[in-house]
């Protein structure tokens, strides 16, 4: 397991990019996290009355610190400002002048009502990249609606294709996939806008949403519907276009089988000792297997239940057929490939101590990024960041005295 070491300078391909994150919970912080992992300097700005709501997502906690907050906010410095107070707004504008990218996931017009929308901020920083992550986007009939992952999953079609099968209750994807995907899309948009800025000096708005993030997860099902006019439904773990490509019960658990082309189908039959099924007209081609998917699942399950998951994986992989187990989160985190790829790393938090977190999912061999610091304490870096912005120590103290900023647990 890799141990993160805090550094003053950020390595990674986005080193030199300065990001101001005005975001909470999941989608916006996921965007900031991705940029920070790639080397950007991300300053997380929290509201003075308690900060990011995920600080109160308890349990679980580690020595009083929210595990959820620490997961989403590593690699960031943290400040707390009151944007409704003149001094707080002054401090914010000073930071904006030196910022490449601002991320916000507030409700519609929140920033504009504060006089801090894109049109106002671009006047003091024409090169500002202003990234907005919302429920449904900043245009269209739903632009003013609030958004949550559950709502986005339902309206994007995701919940209509997730679950065990027809006639069963709708099921959302276990992870907040619309939130996380929106954060990843926003980070991609910010990085692309930053590349444009480096070439031209021009900033711009970047606008994505949970709704669109959910829609991007429906590529295969949308292709089917656009071609046929028929909406696909839930299929459990099966694939809408290829078979067999799903989970099968074994003697001691579950096996994921990826025999999604004719060669792997025939290899699978050799492994399970059923070469005669290649001549069965119900299963002769992929089209036949998809038409008889329910029967195919029953037939193959009878074979797979005769041995353990590990035994089948060994035999299938030897034959060149993609296969794998269905791991729990704990098993995934302890898997040797997870550890070899530094996908579980350790940070030293000032209150929580040694804290494990998920590692950076993109590796750059020439300009490596990664996890360098733990999530910030509430208001931990307010004074340091404002001093860097040109305020004097006395000015920051005065701001803290009137509640414009919070300088708690400085470090």
Structure in words:
This protein has 2 domains: 282 residues, Rossmann fold; 87 residues, formyl-coa transferase, domain 3 (2-Layer Sandwich). The protein contains 17 helices and 15 strands. The strands form 4 sheets. Strands 9-8-7-2-3-6-15 form a 7-stranded mixed beta sheet, sandwiched between helices. Strands 1-13-14 form a 3-stranded mixed beta sheet, with no helix packed on it. α1 crosses α7, α6 crosses α8 and α7 packs across α8. The model has no long low-confidence stretch (mean pLDDT 95).
Low-confidence stretches: none
Helix and strand composition category = alpha/beta
Radius of gyration: 25 Å
Number of domains: 2
Oligomer: single chain
Write the CATH homologous superfamily of the largest domain. Crotonobetainyl-coa:carnitine coa-transferase, domain 1
CATH topology description of the largest domain: Rossmann fold
How many strands, what sense, and barrel or not for the largest sheet? 7 strands, mixed
| Average pLDDT rating | 95
Alpha-carbon distance between the two ends:
26 Å
Instruction: Enumerate how many helices there are, as a single number.
Output: 17
CATH class descriptor name of the largest domain = Alpha Beta
Strand content: 15-25%
- Give the fraction of residues assigned to helices: 25-40%
Per the principal axes of the C-alpha atoms, what is the gross shape? elongated
In order across it, which strands form the biggest sheet? 9-8-7-2-3-6-15
Q: Indicate the CATH architecture of the largest domain.
A: 3-Layer(aba) Sandwich
The tally of beta strands, per DSSP, is: 15
């Amino acid at each position: 397991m890799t141990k993160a070491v805090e550094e003053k300078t950020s390595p990674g391909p986005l080193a030199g990019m300065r990001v101001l994150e005005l975001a909470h919970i999941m989608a916006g912080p996921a965007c900031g996290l991705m940029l920070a992992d790639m080397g950007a300097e991300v300053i997380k700005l929290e509201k003075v009355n308690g900060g990011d709501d995920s600080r109160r997502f308890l349990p679980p906690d580690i020595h009083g610190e929210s595990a959820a907050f620490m997961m989403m906010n590593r690699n960031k410095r943290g400040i707390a400002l009151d944007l409704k107070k003149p001094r707080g707004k002054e401090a914010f504008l000073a930071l904006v002048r030196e910022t490449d990218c601002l991320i916000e996931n507030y409700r519609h017009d929140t920033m504009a009502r504060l006089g801090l929308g894109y049109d106002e901020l671009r006047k003091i920083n024409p090169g500002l990249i202003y990234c907005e992550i919302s429920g449904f986007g900043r245009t269209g009939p739903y632009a003013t609606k609030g958004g949550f992952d559950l709502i986005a999953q339902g309206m994007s079609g995701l919940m209509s294709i997730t679950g065990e099968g027809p006639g069963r209750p709708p099921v959302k994807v276990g992870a907040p996939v619309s939130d996380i995907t929106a954060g990843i899309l926003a980070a991609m948009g910010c990085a692309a806008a930053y590349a444009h800025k480096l070439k031209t000096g021009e900033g711009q708005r970047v606008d994505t949403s949970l709704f669109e993030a959910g829609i991007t997860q429906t590529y295969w099902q949308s292709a089917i519907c656009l071609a046929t006019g028929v909406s696909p439904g839930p299929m459990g773990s099966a694939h809408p276009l290829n078979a067999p490509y799903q989970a099968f019960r074994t003697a001691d658990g579950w096996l994921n089988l990826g025999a999604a082309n004719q060669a792997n189908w025939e290899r699978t039959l050799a492994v399970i000792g059923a070469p005669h099924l290649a001549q069965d007209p119900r299963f002769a081609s992929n089209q036949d297997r998809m038409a008889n998917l329910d029967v195919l699942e029953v037939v193959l399950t009878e074979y797979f239940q005769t041995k353990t998951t590990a035994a089948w994986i060994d035999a299938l992989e030897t034959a060149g057929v993609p296969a794998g187990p269905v791991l729990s989160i704990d098993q995934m985190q302890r898997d040797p490939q997870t550890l070899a790829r530094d996908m579980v790393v350790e940070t030293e938090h000032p209150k929580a101590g040694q804290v494990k977190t998920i590692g950076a999912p993109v590796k750059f061999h020439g300009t490596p990024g990664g996890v360098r610091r733990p999530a910030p304490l509430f208001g931990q870096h307010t004074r340091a960041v404002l001093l860097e912005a040109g305020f004097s120590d006395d000015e920051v103290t005065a701001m803290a005295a009137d509640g414009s900023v919070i300088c708690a647990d400085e470090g």
